[in-house]
Specification:
2 copies of one chain form a homodimer. The first copy, chain A, is mostly helical and about 230 residues long. Chain A has 8 helices and 2 strands; from the N terminus they run H-H-H-H-H-H-H-E-H-E. Chain A folds into 2 domains: about 10-60, Arc Repressor Mutant, subunit A (Orthogonal Bundle); about 70-210, Tetracycline Repressor, domain 2 (Orthogonal Bundle), CATH 1.10.357.10. The first copy, chain A, binds a DNA duplex (30 and 30 nucleotides) through helix 2.
Chain lengths: ~230, ~230
DNA sequence: AAAAAATGTTGACATGCGCAACATGAGAAT
DNA sequence: ATTCTCATGTTGCGCATGTCAACATTTTTT
């Protein structure tokens, strides 16, 4: 007779949606502790299940972290689309994307690091497909803003422009990615100035790109690795 | 009488320089496995000492990793100074710095991630002082190249130029940092094209900076956090 | 030479990962 | 409806790790 609470309330043997519960707990712990080194057992405890229940949903810790990372990508993609929702000017849209991107990272460093920190990259195969999707959504947003004239002039999204567009995206992305991580690692700061910094760098970048968009060398991809 | 080998050879009770041996082993394991999740015990095994010997040199795993990271910063700084050794033109010097930086990261992703991945950032205090030093060496290199005219015109390293110079450095650093990590995470690639990509981005960046250097907002630092 | 400090070793404990065997309950097959 | 089956949850285990405490061996100081 396992009766924990004083009331007659009794948790059913089956949780109902343990998968989400575990991922949710992981997100919570991650954002509290800002540390990837929590234990699966801790998550199980939080979800109120036994220490091994999670293994019915995730082969191992790595797989759980991959799921968490995927949610992170979804969140980030959503923040970016939300931020552009009410904007028309391509320039404004691009700026909003930049802000949302950096902001997303700075507001939850541990999650951002999990997403981009190569907990997954290191080993064998590739990243979970959901990450590809989010990355592609994000890329689509950028392509749209750029081809609509965010760099001062429209650049139609045609084949002969791909290398130019990819060059612009790479410039943008690596600049924002770098800024985010430097902020997160407190190698520049303070991060309260995030918005201003983003603005400055973005502005400088746009001025630069307006004059000269670096063309991507042949054979280079921008975005998640091509499916084989 | 603990005699392990068949010969009369006997390792002395004291290792001699276990500190370096452990750090060395860590660097080796790190670059083999590309994974920060090796165990202290494994390092001890490699160094041929008992599983607890490392604790006489490092308070805990974190401290060991900090030491490894510090070596990483020294290596990177050295690669950059070496790369500029025989160059005079400020522009060439800057390009060489960029190549060396990205190359250093791509050639040992796990080390680079350890250095910048905030294994240290997360917790309480700051990073070990040696990292500050290396970061400042690197910054000095950049300041020198920039003030000598890497952006097309000399910008004397005076107080009224600090915000401009810091702006340029932030642009440069975050761009290279971002590119490095995107390459490392295989979100752009392939990394064999590293050199060309670096060149393209750098060129675009320089053109941009030549026209308009983003000024750093007041109250922002670039480089490791100011000592309190 | 004796005392103190540094460095290595052994053993122990708590915690975590992940396996295997078992328990429980929900839905399919009859 | 009853039974079978399978997904899901539980308990208990083996093994590895981080780290502490107690002890051993050198080296350094005094």
């Amino acid at each position: 007779m396992t009766q924990h609470s004083s009331t007659t309330e009794q948790r059913p043997y089956h949780h109902g949606d343990l998968h989400s519960a575990i991922v949710g707990a992981a997100l919570a712990v991650l954002s509290e502790s800002q540390n990837t080194e929590f234990s699966l057992r801790e998550l199980a405890r939080r979800a109120g299940v036994s220490h091994n229940a999670p293994y019915k949903h995730f082969a191992d810790k790595r797989e759980l972290l991959a799921a968490v990372s995927a949610v992170g990508f979804e969140l980030l993609a959503k923040q970016m689309t939300d931020a552009t929702k009410d904007l028309d000017s391509p320039h404004e849209r691009l700026a909003a994307i930049a802000r949302a991107y950096v902001c997303g990272g700075v507001n939850n460093p541990a999650l951002y690091r999990l997403m981009f920190g190569g907990y997954l990259t290191g080993q064998d195969d590739g990243r979970p497909p959901i990450e590809r999707t989010a990355a592609e959504d994000m890329k689509a947003l950028l392509v749209e803003a750029i081809s609509n004239g965010a760099l001062g002039r429209p650049i139609p999204n045609t084949t002969e422009n791909t290398r130019e567009i990819d060059g612009a995206i790479l410039t943008f992305w690596s600049q924002m990615h770098g800024l985010t991580l430097l902020l997160v690692d407190r190698l520049v700061g303070p991060s309260e100035k995030m918005a201003e910094l983003t603005e400055s760098l973005l502005q400088g970048m746009l001025d630069g790109l307006a004059n000269c968009i670096p063309a991507i060398p042949a054979g280079v991809w921008v975005g998640p690795p091509l499916a084989k």
